[in-house]
Amino acid sequence: MTSGRTLIFHLSDVHFGLEDNRALDWVKQEISEQRPDAVAITGDLTMRARHREFEAATQWINSLDAPVTVEIGNHDMPYFNPVERFFDPYRRMSAIQDKVEKEIDLPGLAVVPLKTVRRWQPRLNWSKGWVTDSALEKCLAAIDALPEGMQAIVTAHHPLREVGTQGTALTRNGRKALDALAVRPVLAVLSGHVHDAFDIVEETGSGPVRMIGAGTLSQRVRSTPPSFNELVWDGRRLEVTVRNLDHVLTQDMQISDVPANALPPRQPGEPVARVNQVPRTDPPVH
Fold first, then answer.
1. What are the Cα distances from residue 110, in Å, to 13, 26, 71, 261, 274?
2. Which domains does the chain have, with CATH numbers?
3. Distance between CA atoms of residues 229 and 80, nearest Å
4. pTM for the full predicted model
5. Between the chain's N and C termini, which has fewer beta carbons within 10 Å?
């Protein structure tokens, strides 16, 4: 990168087991050629957290020539082994243990993780997000420990949007997390889960928070083709480009809002139907 500019690749929802190998080969080549300062992967490395899926995922991640931080997604929790899910839920990620929820410190900027998955929830749909008090405290403590003047980018799997009633909220305690992040030097919150990219500003009682979502690099696409986000920070402004092999413009790749419930993905082989876009204003500069 040019001096004074920081380049971050934001990937998500790779879903090994139903991965898009053409997209993965392309992203790996882009990382090798562009040499980003960091790669943030916001969860769902696998489809069903099978051993063979994690083996493929960890082999690919460990082959990337860049500092990598990995968030845990709901699909990364043991699916067929409830005993392991409750007592040792992250054992299958041991080959990338040094990258899971890793803070990456860059000049003037830190990538700080925020866990949004739980091994169990007191509601039927465990695929949705939940920010526990301990997870939020850990994230906030890391941000508060940064040197004065340093900015943070927070990484999570689920968008920090409540959406819906208390029982069906997309991410429980998402509003609480956003309120706490709004009063701190946070440039944006990166997330996945939705399988479509977005770049929106969430207003809170404490101020605005920019939320940036990445699409998928799997065959489980929804309304847009496989993609990843290229983030460039020049010390004043964080710019986002949604990179994709179909050469669709960023504004046409980004959905206009976080859906209340993630719609079922289209089946492999079905044509991609573009989502309808609504006019958006550029997010404010933090």
1. 22, 26, 15, 30, 34
2. 6-255 (3.60.21.10)
3. 32
4. 0.89
5. N
